[in-house]
């Protein structure tokens, strides 16, 4: 029975540690959001009240948490353990302007990436000979 108590104490410590990390992350995110909002207000020659800035920061934090969950689900649905750029683009499907910007950004990244560094499957000699007569069609 002592083992169960020790284990539950250990689990409690882990939970407390996770909570403290989450609080630190939330606080840092909030400070960044407040800084951005104040800088934008200053650039626009506007004043913004502190409660409004705090509300925007909290909403942004909640939104990014939900976005992270959605991205994780998209990757899991595709049978992957990590999120990729396509998951991010799919997450923006309700905002066509954002989705178009993300696609453009993806295309710019692909254009900058040298061909030799792109991931390609290694073909066996048999497959290599078979594909020698196949014409490769570039991605659009």
Describe this structure in words.
With 140 residues, this protein is mainly alpha-helical. 72% of the residues lie in helices and 0% in strands. It has 5 helices and no strands. The longest helix is centred in the N-terminal third of the chain and has 43 residues, at 2-44. The protein is flat. The termini are far apart. Residues 128-137 have low confidence and may be disordered.
Topology:
Blueprint: H1 2-44, H2 50-77, H3 85-91, H4 96-112, H5 125-130
Helix pairs in contact: 1-2, 2-3, 3-4
Rg over C-alpha atoms, rounded to the nearest angstrom: 24 Å
Biggest sheet features: none
- What quaternary form is this? single chain
Structural class: mainly alpha
Strand content: under 5%
Basic shape: flat
Are there runs of 5+ residues with pLDDT below 50, and where?
128-137
Q: What is the residue-averaged pLDDT?
A: 80
Helices, by number, come to 5
Distance between the termini: 64 Å
Please bin the fraction of helical residues: over 70%
Based on DSSP secondary structure assignment, what is the total number of beta strands?
0
Order of helices and strands: HHHHH
Question: Which labels suit this protein?
Answer:
flat; mainly alpha; 140 residues
Quick structural summary:
It is built from 5 helices and no strands. The chain is an all-alpha fold and 140 residues long.
